[in-house]
Amino acid sequence: AAAAAAAAAATLSASTYPCLHWHACPSAVVACPPVLAALCSGNAIDVSGARALAEALAANTSLTSLTLSDNYISVEGAKALAEALTQNKSLAELGIKGNELGDEGVEALATALLVSGPAAMCRLAQQACSH
Known about the structure:
The protein is of the alpha/beta class. It is about 40% helix and about 15% strand. It has a 6-stranded mixed beta sheet with strand order 1-2-3-4-5-6. The longest helix is centred in the C-terminal third of the chain and has 15 residues. The N and C termini lie far apart (about 35 Å). About 40% of the residues are buried.
């Protein structure tokens, strides 16, 4: 998976990175040249994948848009992402609809987005919520 992620990151020719498999997403988040957007929808990202993404997201300084819609991100995955969002100051949009976030996960993400500063929009459902 690491070799595939490295190969995918090496082929970046634009600022948007489409994830073909969730294992590539953390590499995309920390890829060089800087990736501005990562599209990781429908990749069966579970709690371990969300934690890996959270770790990469916490260290990232260039990503402005991350789409994680229609995965298997749970309450625990949402909490991990929320913690990372408090450290990441570049993300402006997070698309995370179609996951099993639960009330606790939604609350953690909303709180993190309020604290993080520039994060302007979070798509939790068909409608967007912004602060």
